[in-house]
Every structure is written in structure tokens, then in C-alpha cells.
Amino acid sequence: xxxDWKDTYKTGDAEIDAQHKGLFEDVAKILATKxxxxxxxxxxxxxxxxxxxxxxxxxxxxRIAYPQVAEHFKDHTDLMAKITAFAExxxxxxxxxxxxxxxxxxxxxxxxxxxxxxxxxHIWSFYPNWNYALLEAKDx
Length: 140
Ligand SMILES: [Fe+2]
Ligand SMILES: [Fe+2]
What we know:
single chain; mainly alpha; Four Helix Bundle (Hemerythrin (Met), subunit A); 5 helices; binds fe (ii) ion
């Protein structure tokens, strides 16, 4: 199976979009991997990139005082716990390839289409010229 990034996943924050694309690439590598050792390595990369991505996204949400920040944070926390458990199951060799596909495609696209899409609507509605990097540079 193949998992593609789509323009409809854009959020209004260029860095979030770049990070989401990176997560899709991590997932594509996981889906193309058959042996357990490389699967574990690819999953560790997904865990690392997901953690960094969530930290950045949470920084943006705080910066714009996003009203649904609590629910969004909670989903991030739940997903991190799931990804970590998933990596452990790979290490223990207790997952089938079908489980892997279902998990990585489900959580990534599921979260982007629900929680991140709501954040995107908020950014576009209230900050049409949003540029976080520029804002940070001004504050420095
Ligand atoms: Fe998110
Ligand atoms: Fe995200």
C-alpha cells in the first residue's frame, strides 16, 4: 500500500506542513520495510520525528492561544504512548505487517484530518498571513 501527502493536508504553517511530509516519508519507509531490525530503526525515526513535530505544533498552538489546545495536546500524548508501545511490539516481534500498515496509516492521516485540520482552519481564519519563523525572528 502507498500513503501520499496531499495538498488538502496543508495547515497554513509551512513548518508544520514540512514536518507532516517528513512523517509521511517515515511511514513510507516503514511500509516498505520487511525485516524486523530495519522496521525497528524506521519506527525509532518515526518516534523521534513525531516527538519533535508535536513539540513544534504545541508551541504554535500556545503562541496563538488556540482554544482547543487541551484536546489537541491530549491526542498528541495518546499518540506518543501508542507509537512507543508500537515500537516495543516491533522489538518483541509481535506485530504483523498488516498491523503495521493499519497503525501507521491510521494514526497519521486520522490525526491530520481531524485535530490538525481544525488547527489549520483556526490559523487560516485568524492569521491569514501566519509566519511563525518571522514572528520568532522579530521577538529575538
Ligand atoms: Fe497535531
Ligand atoms: Fe501535526
